[in-house]
Amino acid sequence: MAGIWVFAEHKEKKIKRVVFEILSEAKKIAVSKGEPLCAVLFGYGIKDLSPELAAYGAEKIFVVDDEILDSYSNESYSAVLADLARNYQPSIILGGATAMGKDFLPRVAAKLDTGIASDCVSFSVDEDGRVTFRRPVYAGKALIDVYCDGMPQMATIRPNVLDLAEPDSSRKSEIIEWQVSQDARKIRARIKETIKGASSRPDLTEARIIVSGGRAMKSADNFKILYDLADLLGAAVGASRAAVDSGYASHDMQVGQTGKTVTPNLYIACGISGAIQHLAGMRTSKCIVAINKDPEAPIFKIADYGIVGDLFKIVPLLTEELKKILKEQ
Amino acid sequence: MNIIVCMKQVPDTETRIKLKPDFSGIETEGIKYIINPYDEFAIEEALRIKERFGQGQVTIITLGPQRATEALRTGLAMGADEAIHINDPFFEGCDQYLTAKALGRAIKNIPYDLILCGRQAIDDDSAQVYAYIAEFLNLPYVSFVIKLEISQDRKSLIAHRVIEGGAFEVVESPLPAIISATKGLNEPRYASLPGIMKAKKKEIKNLTASDLGFAEDESGSGGSKIKIKKYYYPPQRKPGRIIEGEPEDAVRELVRLLREEAKII
Ligand SMILES: Cc1cc2nc3c(=O)[nH]c(=O)nc-3n(C[C@H](O)[C@H](O)[C@H](O)COP(=O)(O)OP(=O)(O)OC[C@H]3O[C@@H](n4cnc5c(N)ncnc54)[C@H](O)[C@@H]3O)c2cc1C
Ligand SMILES: Nc1ncnc2c1ncn2[C@@H]1O[C@H](COP(=O)(O)O)[C@@H](O)[C@H]1O
């Protein structure tokens, strides 16, 4: 059993940043265990993506280039990855905790009769040479260290929590091509169509900056001031459940225990009180800014910087000030 | 239409988690338990499908300790027809793999066209039990579903699956299949008073590990694949500061701090 595998998810042939984050961290494990770091690349017409994976340290790249993998399906993707793993016997398989990774990697674990640690924030080799994965539970109110008592050891890794290494484009990697088996072509649940999101803003779970609005926004139209600020910063826009349930923002924008868990570098909470369920989803943001007219609002207890005041005044001022600064740069 | 809903009892979202002194787990004393919020969407959807077709049976199933019967009673009060409780000390400390194995074995013995789950249990936050069940029962599944339609002939479904960036995948699958529900699928109903009265009289079917074919010398935690070493508290955030002054000055100072101190912008 050897090899540390990272599933190289890409969207429209652009490799996701989380893949590079995992490769960067997994490189350390590969070195300490003396095993090769490998990337696994699925899709159709994707061979050009290999050099980037090599630059982040992948020594071998398993490429499965087949029309059937052009459209995602948890059945075909899990069958092909499980076939590959049975053949090459990696000791570890990692992937991003993304809509795709969370969907099909547990099925791979099931096929290989092993366990998978979900949504991990770090990993390291323990005294016994096993990998310890650290993951939040109870919506981040606690963390647990776990190991996988099965082979391969599997985990999905949360985007935006691991540091990127410097890519080195002089690195080369060995390409290993693999054919899709007949069995892996049997798909029952099929994507008929993908409906694009209304906005071109980054996804909340991957965004470096998030501007979020709460009940205080009072209407969907008022969210415009948050969109203006977000677009200036290349940020995503989030919302509290109160804002979502009042119809000011869509469901996919909800941050919190029953919404998304986010870890941006900067989270700007506007008119959000800071209920425990909301904090659960954003408390691991690197820097939190709170704008709220109530100085007693619990959000200020976890904010790095707070401004007590009317968001309808503060937010446009902030946009103007940033515009000035960004123009100078 | 026979529908099975897998539901888990979890600590209320308001719960402040306290760890045991030896960090081997959480203190359970004083915790208020609820049905996993995502599983409420699953129950609601099952009831709506049954109502739409005017026929069928909704069976709720849970694996959990004795206290989980309360969650089943609540599900019955919402309108579920039958309830199954996998209730055995054997399963104490078991992981998602073993949970799914037990649920799969229990489900295999009842007729079903559709299995509904929640997208994740808000205690372990794993989002994997349905994938294991699907593999064990050789079924297709669609996860993170925000909209679900069952075809008129009840042979297939169309599900909208939430992916990144506010986008959806429209997935078609033959039945039987598994769905995991996410917020936005529906608004769960409250149990009605007559529903609560009726639920009290309903029988809950109990299953043990040996009923499900687990050998006596196995144990739930022993048969698990993911083993917990230790619990931790999340790192505390450093106390922040309130920026005083007139709005214009405060905003200018905030931007300066974000650039020079936090180095973000
Ligand atoms: C099972 C369950 C799951 C939940 N899951 C989530 C979840 O995932 N995410 C989530 O967010 N919540 C969740 N909640 C809800 C949570 O408990 C709170 O109700 C919710 O977060 C409150 O949203 P809010 O802060 O926008 O509203 P409020 O608590 O009403 O706060 C509004 C804030 O805006 C401030 N304000 C008002 N006007 C202005 C102004 N002009 N300028 C500046 N500030 C102003 C007020 O001072 C106040 O602090 C959940 C609850 C339950 C029971
Ligand atoms: N102990 C359990 N009993 C019944 N259903 C469960 C149990 N654990 C998980 N599930 C189901 O699987 C879903 C995903 O759970 P998890 O993989 O634990 O996050 C939940 O929303 C439930 O529908």
Total number of helices of chain B: 6
Gross geometry of chain A? elongated
Distance between the termini of chain A: 52 Å
Task: Write down how many β-strands of chain A occur, each being a DSSP E stretch of 2 or more residues.
Answer: 18
Mean pLDDT of chain A: 96
Radius of gyration of chain A: 21 Å
Biggest pleated-sheet summary of chain B: 9 strands, mixed
Bound molecules: flavin-adenine dinucleotide, adenosine monophosphate
Mean pLDDT of chain B: 95
Q: Are there runs of chain A of 5+ residues with pLDDT below 50, and where? A: none
Give the termini distance of chain B in whole angstroms: 55 Å
Beta-strand level of the residues of chain B, as a percent range? 25-35%
- Strands of the widest sheet of chain B, in order across it, are 9-8-7-10-6-1-4-5-11
Biggest sheet layout of chain A? 7 strands, parallel
**Portion of residues within helices of chain B:** 25-40%
Strand order of the largest sheet of chain A: 7-11-6-1-4-5-12
The pair of chains with the biggest contact is: A-B, 98 and 83 residues
Q: Helix/strand/pairing class of chain A, anyone? A: alpha/beta
Strand content of chain A: 25-35%
Q: What does this protein look like?
A:
The complex is a heterodimer of chains A (329) and B (265). Helices cover 29% and strands 27% of the residues of chain A. Chain A has a seven-stranded parallel β-sheet with strand order 7-11-6-1-4-5-12, with helices on both faces. Chain A contains nine helices and 18 strands. Chain A is an alpha/beta fold. Helix content of chain B is 28%, strand content 26%. Chain B has helices at residues 37-53, 68-78, 96-108, 129-137, 193-201, 247-260, and strands at residues 2-6, 9-11, 33-35, 57-63, 82-86, 114-118, 141-150, 156-162, 168-174, 177-181, 204-207, 226-232, 241-242. The longest helix of chain B has 17 residues, at 37-53. Chain B is globular, with a radius of gyration of 22 Å. The model of chain B has no long low-confidence stretch (mean pLDDT 95). Chains A and B meet through helix 3, helix 4, strand 7, strand 9 and strand 10 of A and helix 3, helix 4, strand 7, strand 8 and strand 9 of B. Strand 18 (305-308) of chain A pairs parallel with strand 13 of chain B. The complex binds flavin-adenine dinucleotide and adenosine monophosphate. Flavin-adenine dinucleotide binds next to helix 6, helix 7, strand 17 and helix 9 of chain A.
